[in-house]
Write a structure and sequence with these properties.
With 143 residues, the protein is an alpha+beta fold. The chain is built from 3 helices and 10 strands. The radius of gyration is 20 Å and the shape is globular.
Amino acid sequence: MAGMLWLVSCKDEPVEASNVPSFDALKTTNLLGQWQFRSYTDGKPFKYDVSMEIKIEDGKPTINGRSSVNFYFIEPEIDESKKTIKIPAVGSTKIAGTMDATSFEMTYYERLKRVERYDFVDKNTLVIYLSSPANEALYFDKK
């Protein structure tokens, strides 16, 4: 009898659906995933391995990645219905690098802070547009 009472008392509490992330919805979001930085609008090649991963952590979007020298992390504001993205600040590790690599990295971070919206050329190519200069963009390929 005591065993039966214990089993009944261990019943799971109901969980509100609004507090549970929809993993089906996350799987269909093209923005989420790992991306490899390809180029700026000018298309000029560069010699650094730059990447980012967009994911949901604790119910909020996060961006983490590797720039030319350091690892960076961002808590963006993303509106998927409008395809807008705002990056209030870029945090990073403090690893020392060459002057060239550090200069590239600072330029990359400054451009990330001016991000305004995004779009897809196809499901494997992400274009992130900057607020200024008006025609500037960052191109990423899906990993």
